[in-house]
Amino acid sequence: MSTISIIGSGGMATAIAGRVARSGQTVEVISRDNAKAQALADQLASGAITGKYGAAPAGDIVVLAVPYASAAAVAADFGKALDGKVIIDITNPVAPDLSGLLTPPGSSGAQETAKGIPAGAHVVKAFNTIFGHVLAKGGRLDAFIAADDAKAKVRVSTFLESLGLRPFDVGGLQMAQTLEALGLMMIGLAKNGAGTWDFALNVDLG
Amino acid sequence: MSTISIIGSGGMATAIAGRVARSGQTVEVISRDNAKAQALADQLASGAITGKYGAAPAGDIVVLAVPYASAAAVAADFGKALDGKVIIDITNPVAPDLSGLLTPPGSSGAQETAKGIPAGAHVVKAFNTIFGHVLAKGGRLDAFIAADDAKAKVRVSTFLESLGLRPFDVGGLQMAQTLEALGLMMIGLAKNGAGTWDFALNVDLG
């Protein structure tokens, strides 16, 4: 049985951990605050474990479920401990006033994360276009991914399918820029035209 | 009965004109090449008319259905003739190799268009997240819009509903950046994970 490591203990970490636990896979929760990691593991109540912050995660797939503002620092704290891992970047690098993105022009949160991990690790963008509470509710949602490494992308696709999601590859890691813009667009949609945060974006193949 | 003016005679102009004609509204086709405008009007065969390139369009809503590379020049050719109009910018400012967007950092095709029109005209971003051939097929597709002027946005929403589309406001005109990124994302999706160009992105309200 696979172990999936999740760094973080906030809303998205909890939503993803919940789906992983329900899929029958082992969740390893890792947080700078070990009490928060333990609380989330206890809440999952399915053999979830906690890992040591900064040490090598147990899973080959590591979900970096922390805010954009701290992602680089967290990656630095783990350093070479992430070597060989598939890192899932879920960040939505949105300005506090939701007016735009905080990333440097021509880059994305995922590309910035990729700069700070060992050469043997690969970043895959995923989960940022699904609201945490919608993810937690369940259902077969569409999940867009972007990555440069083909093998890492296949692994994450398989992982997403194991959670009951429908993965869609949108291209190389630079396409994370479009997915992060889509994350911002969904926030704008929630605040304006949709009138609710309870929605998902789906691909209608006709 | 409303008249909708469409500047352009390419694939998207044809797809939009077809839906307008089927809705029972009058289409005015305007092209730098009047023969092309006449050919599209004849093809519509529903009382469609042609307008003089550079003169004031007949419709209060003017769809600027030309490529991003020529949008600014076309707006300049019309100049004050566009005063008071609601201009729909449909551009996807995508690089020829589809690797990224051609717009200046922090801007969008729609915002660039807005710089070149009279102060009494308003730009609304729309249609760029629906492939032309999907739009032409019909069906109740979701149509995302962004604009600063509230009245112009309401008019375009009503117009989109008259075409059988479901409009969704994503915010101010700067949010056109997210819609244009979404256009690029859809191209990446078509080339990668979707394996087809026959799809639409829909909002699932659960």
Automatic annotation (TrEMBL), chains A, B:
Tell me which InterPro entries the record gives.
NAD(P)-bd_dom_sf, P5C_Rdtase_cat_N, STEAP_metalloreductase
A GO MF annotation of the entry reads: oxidoreductase activity
Q: Per the record's keyword annotation, is Lipid biosynthesis included, yes or no?
A: no
Keywords linked to the UniProt accession: Oxidoreductase
Q: Where is the Pyrroline-5-carboxylate reductase catalytic N-terminal domain?
A: 3-93
Q: What is this protein called?
A: Prephenate dehydrogenase
